[in-house]
Amino acid sequence: MSIISYPGSPFPLGATWDGNGVNFALYAHNATGVELCLFDSMEAQQESAIIKMRERSYEVWHAYIPELKPGQLYGYRVNGPFEPLEGHRFNRNKLLIDPYAKAISGTINWHDSLYGYNFGHKDEDLSFNEKDSAPYIPKSVVVDPHFDWEGDKAPKIPYYKSIIYEAHVKGFTQLHPEIPEEIRGKYAAIGHPVTIKYLQEMGITAIELLPVHHFINDWTLQDKGLTNYWGYNTIGFFAPDVRYSSSGTLGQQVNEFKAMVKELHKAGIEVILDVVYNHTGEGNEKGPTLSFKGIDNASYYRLMEEDKRYYMDYTGTGNTLNANMPSVLRLIMDSLRYWILEMHIDGFRFDLASALARELHDVDRLSAFFDIIYQDPVISQVKLIAEPWDVGDGGYQVGNFPPGWSEWNGKYRDCMRDFWRGEESMLAEFANRFTGSSDLYMDDYRRPTASINFITAHDGFTLHDLVSYNEKHNLANGEDNNDGDDHNRSWNCGVEGPTEDQWIIDLRNRQKRNFLVTLFLSQGVPMLVAGDEMSRTQQGNNNAYCQDNEISWVDWAGADKELMEFSRKLIHLRKNHPVFRRRRWFQGQPIKGLGLEDIAWFTPNGQEMSGENWDEDHSKSLGIYLNGRGVHTLGPKGEVIIDDSFYVIFNAYHDSLIFQLPPEKYGAQWIVVIDTFRNLADDQGTLYNAGDSFHVEGRSVLVLKNHVHGTQMDNDE
């Protein structure tokens, strides 16, 4: 096949169709030659044309091919030294995925030709594999970037109004009976009216999707009949994964993803992506050669300084992307900008974000990664959420990310789990976490919304399992139950796993409600895991990363409708009352003209807590007064925000206690709006007067609202 080739341009990187042809550009600093390979079909065993890219500018190889169109399949073969001891693993026999591919045509068909070395060779990864990998690797796809967004606008929901819902594209919709079967588990299902209606009714403002960047399903998992379900194994940072496409594999997946985002935006729901820029799916020196490793291994990955044959591994996956290199930083920033500008994404949650911040071995909060994002006019304006840890030394960095970032607050999760399972000495930390974790975020001028509060996440027990299991039950993963965290801070309420004991069932249900109330009434940004509001179980599996089946999928048919309704009312209570979603820190000082604090803490006997009360190890119960006139912020038109006042009683003690309401100056009459013991979540509860005493059941939460309304000027909406 005769192909005309022009010099083309080094930028933009990737394959860019301009209506007349396609420009190809590939960064490969240490390469000695690059060949562009074109394929006629996904089934083709070998390329139909090979174009030697003779132009090289700024360490970028480039060529322009006229008359090529969207849907064209391609890959690269890259020449250079095969010197693993020096960090170079070039091998022309390996067809490579374009790091900037906007779409990838399929999934890997595992074969030993995908590895740069020979299995079983005495020299292991120092040996050289001459087998052609082209028949077994998915091809990159040229895409048409045009899409009718119909005037789509980002919802731009401020953090303090956000309710984040962490979900898996497939797992959330795969079993939904009202979604057409042909699109279940696909992008189209997330954008389906049934899904959107559910999210709206629940009060969700942002859906945070587990990784959708094209990822690798490990050969070892495939051999066990398992799969990399979560997707934390990226190979294409620009390409929406083809497995979630119901419309096609030659670029149609891009438009289906865009259509999903457009429909969610129409409903006022933001889309946040869980992104994995800390490593790739190529693993360590024993891993396959699929893209970066064969294009320029020494540039893309962090290698051991003393022996470049081996990789620095701060991620637990075998490799770490080298975000210290300008070319890798550019890749990450280009990817982020692409998802914002072209795919209309509203924010990102960065997996193992500490790994991106490492300068040499240490985590440096002022690394180039953060500096570049801080000054970027596009990326700095969306939601940036860090998972503030990695697996290396010093990698636990909760509270240490710079202004502009929010963080998954692991200390919030641990504290609230310990509080409700009855650990000692929890009151002081509980108070700190409940009010937004000022000890972590206030000193660098961040707000309470820097704290992304969560009780559970995709990694670990579901909410139902958190109150049903003391131990992990991961045998289905095929690792003899050795995988997953051993320290879950869970409590099974007396019996491990399923039980018919109604007393334990009632206690577990109450504990679930306790956790949910704590989460949604805490200052900060709440994150709920899909299915927790309906008692989804993973049967005690706390590491279901490889379970693409009913263990991980949301069971809509078996949903706990009572808990769903309780959760819905609870979320709307938060949304309707700015006192639960403050933009500024509590000051704990009298409000001018009232003589009352914006927040006050009480012992069960109705007395304000003193210093010694916080130090009592056995104390597991308290009352919290939230002053509706102490919100301290103005509405969008400069109006003073005034809300109802609330009195929240937490009783984590195992037995009922007598609580006395505070004096009349805090409120003359109070009505119960939430009672986790009685499964109540509305304003039809009992009415109490100031100073009244009453029993509060063990392990329960009571939320009371001041029954006498002031001039309520919120609505802050």
TrEMBL record:
InterPro entries for the chain: GH, GH13_cat_dom, GlgX_Isoamylase_N_E_set, Glyco_hydro_13_N, Glyco_hydro_b, Glycogen_debranch_GlgX, Ig-like_fold, Ig_E-set
A molecular function GO annotation: amylo-alpha-1,6-glucosidase activity
Cross-referenced SUPFAM superfamilies: (Trans)glycosidases, E set domains, Glycosyl hydrolase domain
Matches recorded under Pfam families: Alpha-amylase, CBM_48, Isoamylase_C
Record bears the keyword Iron: no
Tree of life domain: Bacteria
Keyword Transport in annotation: no
Annotated keywords: Glycosidase, Hydrolase
Residues in Glycosyl hydrolase family 13 catalytic domain copies: 166-574
Any single biological process term in GO: glycogen catabolic process
Family statement drawn from the similarity comment of this UniProt entry: Belongs to the glycosyl hydrolase 13 family.
Protein name in the entry: Glycogen debranching protein
